[in-house]
C-alpha cells in the first residue's frame, strides 16, 4: 500500500517529507521519491529501494512546499523510473498517486497521439500529462477536468511550478488526511505520517478535492462546490495510528479485503461482453486450447487457495486439475509435459519451496503462470506470465486479504480459460462477472456483523480442540479456518472434508468439542446436513456458517452465523472472512500475540 505525504509552510520541506515517509514505512514499499518547489522550479529526486537509499543520494533541495511518495509496485517494476513523483512534459507539474487508474492505457494512447512523451510504465504518469493538456490559466480547473477522465481508485497530490505555495489533492476510494498546523499544513495517506507535527486533522471523503496553502485549506467537491469540514483531534499512540485505529494489523487487513478484492479485479473484467483481460499471463489462445492438465503449486494459505482453484477450474474449464504442496512437489518425481499448465501461487513471490517447484516444472517444458502480490519478486522473473493480485502489503503473519485476492485471481483465470476453450458461454461469463463485482460489498456486509462472530469466538475461546468441516468448494475454507486458529491462537484445530469424518476423525469427537461446519447452500448442502447429524450424534457442539435465507439449518446446528446469500461458487469467500474473524477474536480472548505469532515468518524464503 503506497504512501503519500505533502507539506506547505515556512520550513524546509525535504526534511519534513522524509520524516513523514519514514513513518509510513510499515505500509511496505519498494521505491520512494520527493518533489519540492524551489522558486519557480520543481526539484525532484527518486530512488529504488528504501527511504535510506533516497536520503543517501539526495542532492541539496531548498523550498517549503513539496510532495513525497513510497511506492508498492503494481503497474511496472520497482525501478527508479517507475517511482513517484511523475512529471508532465514541461517539468512543471508533479504528481504522486495511490490506487489504480483502470483506463490508463486508453488515456496514455490518446496522450501519445497528441505528442506527449512518457518515461515510465506506470498508470500514474497519465495524470500529470492530462493536467498539462487541460491547463490554460487555472490549475484547479485542469485538475477537475483530469479527475473527470479517470476511472478507478486514487489518492492524488499535485505540485505545480505555476502555483507557488500550494498542494492540490483529491480522493476516490483511497484514503487522504489533511493535517492542520500553525502557518503550515500537511497531507498524508495515513495519520502516522503527521503525528509528530500535528494532531488536528481533516479526513477527506470520496469525491472531494483540497487546496492546501500554509495559512488555509479549501475543500470542495469534484464539481467545485465548497465543502465545510470538521476538524478532529487524534489521540492515538504512534503504533495505534499505524494500524489506522485497529488494535492489530490482522484486523485491519481483514477489513481491507473489500478493497483488495475490488482492486485485484479492477480494469480486468467487463460485464458488457463477459470478457476477462489477462494479457500479462502470456497465454495465447492456441496455447490455452492445447492445455490438457493444470497443476496448482503453493504452500500454506496459498495452498488452500489452490484447492479452491482446483474445484473452480474443473467445474468451469472442464480440464483435470491437480494441487501440489510446493515442498513436496520436487520429491514426487512429477510427470509433466508441454501441454501441462503450472500455476504457482505465492503472496510474496519469494517462497523458496515454490520457486524450487517452479524450476522443476520449467525443466520439463511446462508453461507457467504466477499468482502473486509482489511486482518484481523472484518468481515473477522466472514464469512465462504473471497474474498480479493488488492486495497491498500484508504485515500480519496470518494471511487474510491476500487469500481473498488470490481467490479473485483464480475466478478471473477460470473465466478467461473457460471462454477461450468454449466451456463457458458469454451469457454465463457475464453472470459470473456480475457476481464477482458484488463480492466486495458482500464481504463488507460480513465485516459489519463481526460482533456476532466475536460473541461465539468468546464463548468457545477456552476450548482446547476445534474441528472445521466443509465439502467441495468449502473444504479448502475449512482447512484455512483451522490454519488461522492454529497460527494465531495456538489451539489444536483440524480441517476435514465432512464426508471423511466417518473414516477416522469421529473417534475424536465428544461432548462439548466445537465443530465449525461450513454449510452454505449448493451441490453438497443436503450431504452436509447429514454430516452435521453425525457430529451431533457424538454430542459435539456445531457452529454452522450458513446462508442468510436458510431456515433449515437451525434444526441441525447449535449456533448459526449467517452470511449474505450468493451463488454457490462465491459463498466460500464470505465464509473465509467469518473464519478469519473467528480466529482473531479467539486469539484476542486468549491474549495471544496476533500479528507476529511464535515461530512463524511472513515469507518463508528458505526451504
Low-confidence stretches: none
Report the CATH superfamily of the largest domain. Answer: Aminohydrolase, N-terminal nucleophile (Ntn) domain
* CATH topology call of the largest domain: Glutamine Phosphoribosylpyrophosphate, subunit 1, domain 1
Number of domains: 3
CATH first level of the largest domain: Alpha Beta
Rg is 25 Å
CATH second-level architecture of the largest domain:
4-Layer Sandwich
How many individual β-strands? 26
Strand line-up in the sheet with most strands: 3-2-4-1-10-9-11-14
Helix tally?
A: 18
Q: Biggest sheet, open or closed, and with what strands and sense?
A: 8 strands, antiparallel
Shape: globular
The portion of residues forming beta strands comes to 15-25%
Protein structure class = alpha/beta
Mean pLDDT: 92
In short:
With 607 residues, the protein is α/β, with parallel strands linked by helices. A hairpin with a 2-residue loop joins strand 2 (31-38) and strand 3.
Which helices and strands appear, and what pairs or packs with what?
Layout: E1 3-8, H1 13-22, E2 31-38, E3 41-48, H2 51-56, E4 65-71, E5 86-87, E6 93-101, H3 104-113, H4 126-134, H5 139-149, E7 152-160, E8 166-172, E9 177-180, E10 185-188, E11 200-203, E12 208-213, E13 217-221, E14 232-233, H6 238-242, H7 249-255, H8 257-265, E15 269-270, E16 275-276, H9 285-290, E17 293-298, H10 300-317, E18 321-325, H11 326-329, E19 340-346, H12 352-363, E20 367-372, E21 385-388, H13 401-421, H14 426-448, H15 450-460, E22 465-470, H16 475-489, E23 492-497, E24 514-518, H17 525-536, E25 541-547, E26 559-563, H18 571-589
Parallel strand pairs: 17-18, 17-19, 19-20, 20-21, 22-23, 22-24, 24-25, 25-26
Antiparallel strand pairs: 1-4, 1-10, 2-3, 2-4, 5-6, 6-7, 7-8, 8-12, 9-10, 9-11, 11-14, 12-13, 15-16
Helix pairs in contact: 3-4, 4-5, 8-13, 8-14, 10-13, 10-16, 13-14, 14-18, 15-18, 16-18
Amino acid at each position: 500500500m503506497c504512501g503519500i505525504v505533502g507539506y506547505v509552510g515556512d520550513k524546509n520541506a525535504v526534511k519534513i517529507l522524509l520524516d513523514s515517509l519514514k513513518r509510513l514505512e510499515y505500509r511496505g514499499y519498494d521505491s520512494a521519491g520527493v518533489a519540492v518547489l524551489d522558486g519557480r522550479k520543481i526539484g525532484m529526486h527518486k530512488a529504488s529501494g528504501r527511504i535510506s537509499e533516497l536520503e543517501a543520494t539526495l542532492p541539496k533541495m531548498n523550498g517549503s512546499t513539496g510532495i513525497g511518495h513510497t511506492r508498492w509496485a503494481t503497474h511496472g517494476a520497482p525501478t527508479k523510473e517507475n517511482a513517484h513523483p511523475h512529471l508532465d512534459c514541461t517539468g512543471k507539474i508533479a504528481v504522486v498517486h495511490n490506487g489504480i487508474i483502470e483506463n490508463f492505457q486508453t488515456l496514455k494512447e490518446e496522450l501519445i497521439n497528441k505528442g506527449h512523451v512518457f518515461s515510465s510504465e506506470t498508470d500514474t504518469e497519465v495524470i500529470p500529462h492530462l493536467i498539462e493538456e487541460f491547463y490554460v490559466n487555472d490549475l484547479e480547473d485542469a485538475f477537475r477536468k483530469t479527475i473527470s477522465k479517470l476511472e478507478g481508485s486514487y489518492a492524488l497530490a499535485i505540485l505545480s511550478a505555476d502555483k507557488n505555495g500550494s498542494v492540490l489533492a483529491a480522493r476516490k476510494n483511497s484514503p487522504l488526511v489533511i493535517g492542520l498546523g500553525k502557518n503550515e499544513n500537511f497531507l498524508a495517506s495515513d495519520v502516522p505520517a503527521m503525528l509528530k507535527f500535528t494532531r488536528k486533522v481533516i479526513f477527506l471523503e470520496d469525491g472531494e478535492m483540497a487546496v492546501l496553502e500554509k495559512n488555509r485549506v479549501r475543500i470542495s467537491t469534484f464539481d467545485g462546490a465548497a465543502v465545510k469540514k470538521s476538524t478532529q483531534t487524534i489521540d492515538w499512540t504512534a503504533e495505534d495510528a499505524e494500524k489506522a485505529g485497529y488494535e492489530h494489523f490482522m484486523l485491519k487487513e481483514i477489513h481491507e479485503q473489500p478493497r483488495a478484492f475490488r482492486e485485484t479485479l479492477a480494469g480486468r473484467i467487463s460485464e458488457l461482453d463477459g470478457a476477462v483481460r489477462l494479457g500479462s499471463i502470456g497465454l495465447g489462445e492456441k496455447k490455452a486450447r492445447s492445455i490438457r492438465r493444470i497443476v496448482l503449486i503453493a504452500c500454506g494459505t496459498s495452498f488452500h487457495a489452490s484447492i479452491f482453484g482446483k474445484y473452480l477450474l474443473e467445474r468451469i474449464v472442464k480440464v483435470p486439475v491437480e494441487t501440489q504442496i510446493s515442498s513436496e512437489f520436487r520429491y514426487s518425481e512429477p510427470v509433466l509435459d508441454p501441454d501441462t499448465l503450472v500455476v504457482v501461487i505465492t503472496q510474496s513471490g519469494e517462497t523458496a519451496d515454490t520457486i524450487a517447484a517452479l524450476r522443476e516444472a520449467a525443466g520439463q517444458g511446462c508453461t507457467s503462470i504466477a499468482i502473486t502480490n509482489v511486482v518484481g519478486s523472484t518468481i515473477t522473473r522466472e514464469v512465462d506470465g504473471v497474474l498480479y493480485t493488488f492486495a497491498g502489503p500484508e504485515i500480519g503473519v496470518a494471511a487474510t486479504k491476500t487469500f481473498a485476492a488470490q481467490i479473485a485471481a483464480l475466478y478471473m483465470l477460470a473465466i478467461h480459460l473457460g471462454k477461450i476453450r468454449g466451456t463457458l458461454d458469454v451469457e454465463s461469463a457475464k453472470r459470473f462477472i456480475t457476481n464477482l463485482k458484488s463480492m466486495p460489498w458482500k464481504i463488507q456486509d460480513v465485516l459489519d456483523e463481526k460482533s456476532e462472530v466475536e460473541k461465539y469466538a468468546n464463548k468457545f475461546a477456552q476450548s482446547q480442540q476445534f474441528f472445521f468441516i466443509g465439502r467441495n468448494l468449502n473444504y479448502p475454507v475449512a482447512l484455512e479456518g483451522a490454519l488461522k486458529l492454529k497460527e494465531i491462537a495456538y489451539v489444536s484445530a483440524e480441517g476435514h472434508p465432512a464426508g471423511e469424518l466417518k473414516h477416522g476423525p469421529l473417534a475424536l469427537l465428544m461432548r462439548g468439542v466445537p465443530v465449525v461446519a461450513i454449510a452454505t447452500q449448493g451441490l453438497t448442502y443436503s450431504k452436509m446436513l447429514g454430516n452435521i447429524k453425525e457430529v451431533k450424534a457424538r454430542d459435539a457442539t456445531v457452529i454452522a456458517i450458513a446462508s442468510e435465507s436458510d431456515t433449515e439449518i437451525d434444526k441441525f446446528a447449535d449456533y448459526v452465523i449467517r452470511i449474505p446469500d450468493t451463488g454457490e461458487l462465491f459463498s466460500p469467500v464470505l465464509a473465509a472472512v467469518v473464519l478469519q474473524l473467528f480466529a482473531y477474536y479467539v486469539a484476542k480472548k486468549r491474549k495471544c500475540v496476533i500479528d507476529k505469532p511464535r515461530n512463524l515468518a511472513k515469507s518463508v524464503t528458505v526451504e
